Amino acid sequence: MRNLGKYLLRRFAFMIITLWVIITISFFFMKLLPGTPFDDERIPEAVLENMMAQYGLDKSIPEQYVLYLTNVVQGDFGVSYRIKNRDVTTIIAEKFAPSAIIGIHALIISVPLGIILGMIAALRRGTAIDYAAVGFAVIGFAIPSFVVAVALQYLIAGNGLLPSALWGTYKHVILPSIALALSMFAYYARMMRSEMLEVLGQDYIKTAKSKGLSRPVIIFKHAFRNSLIPIITSLPVVILFTISGSLVIEQIYSIPGLGTELVKSVLSRDYTVSMGLTLFYAVMYIVALFIVDILYSVVDPRIRVAGGSE
After folding, report:
1. Residue 273: CA count within 13 A, CB half-sphere
2. 171 vs 166: CA distance, rounded Å
3. What is the pTM of this model?
4. What is the pLDDT of residue 308?
5. How many Cβ atoms from other residues are within 10 Å of residue 39's Cβ?
6. Which residues make beta-bridge pairs with 87?
7. Which residues in 185-250 belong to E strands, given as ranges?
8. Cα atoms in the Cβ-side hemisphere of radius 13 Å centred on 93
9. What is the pLDDT of residues 141-184, one digit of tens each?
10. Using only C-alpha atoms, what is the Rg of the chain?
11. Which residues are bridge partners to 79 per DSSP?
């Protein structure tokens, strides 16, 4: 328990340092962009000066950095320069919901089905099932998501079965979720097949067979469990990508999500929103990595979060 406490404390300190580095780099990169959020020839000079002073943009960059960092520590991410009277936290909360709904549905579709298909293909290696699974996975991985999205719009929405775009009801979730899920489904099917075949060829699997263990025990207790470790390693990036939104899918289906908002904020030099979204992505990714470390010890008891021996 003491080792676990030390581990969690180290991880927390690492998370804080990582977030500080990300904030610092992002802040100064944003300031390198030419212009200001209020570049408009129609704005009188006196009004522009007042606006710059109101948002603290008339201060030196080091002063702005210290002020921003101080506010972030206090939980204040500022207000949007582009959207009047809207704070960054509210904007992220509103834009996160559509992206998260589509991402979660895509994960529910792709990860379990991909693992099942890859597992079946590995256990039926060299058969028609294996060839069909591999072929489907290659095609699914090779076709860009925007092609799938447009094809679904034409084939399904074009026949009036589901809405082609916009956001509002559950029907608007189905097509973008499927379009986002296909490439991930193919990715996990290929990965699971490859890892399962590698594990099935290990010496400890041969030893288990020689001991007379049943096939289900060998497959599910030994092979399947160890095959999941690389898949768990890849999950943080995949979860971050799906739940935080896919810009292409959101654009095609006119979904008001985080990806679209990030591009708008960068193009309009809405520094506070851009920084808030960057920090939001960073927190999600770091937390996901922490969860993976914990899952390691569950999937494989030989791996200890405290870095101890087996």
Report:
1. 29
2. 10
3. 0.73
4. 47
5. 11
6. 79
7. none
8. 6
9. 788 888 888 898 888 888 888 888 878 788 889 999 998 888 88
10. 24
11. 87
CB 206 within 8 A of CB 134: no
Low pLDDT (below 70) residues in the chain? 1-5, 7, 40-41, 244-245, 294-310
Count how many residues are written for the chain: 310
| pLDDT tens digits, 224-270 | 878 887 887 777 777 777 776 677 888 888 888 888 788 888 888 88
**pLDDT value at residue 229:** 77
- Whole-number Å distance between alpha carbons of 32 and 37: 13
Name the DSSP class of 188. H
Tokens 């999205």 sit at which residue? 149
Cα 21 from chain centroid (whole Å): 20
d(CA 138, CA 10): 41
Local structure of 144: helix, strand or coil = coil
Cβ atoms of 114 and 184 within 8 Å: the answer is: yes
Residue 250 CA to its chain's centroid (Å): 14
Q: How many CB atoms lie under 10 A from the CB of residue 177? A: 23
Is 110 within 8 Å of 185 (Cβ atoms)? yes
DSSP string, 4-46: HHHHHHHHHHHHHHHHHHHHHHHHHHHHHSSS-TT--TTS-HH
Give me the pLDDT at residue 134, please.
86
CA distance 91 to 72: 16
Q: Distance between the two ends of the chain, CA-based, in angstroms? A: 16
Nearest to 99 by CA among 276, 275, 252, 250: 250
In angstroms, the Cα distances linking 75 to 72, 90, 97, 262 are 5, 13, 21, 20
Report the alpha-carbon distance of residue 102 to residue 178 in Å, rounded: 9
* Cα–Cα distance measured from residue 35 to residue 267, given in angstroms and rounded to the nearest whole number: 11
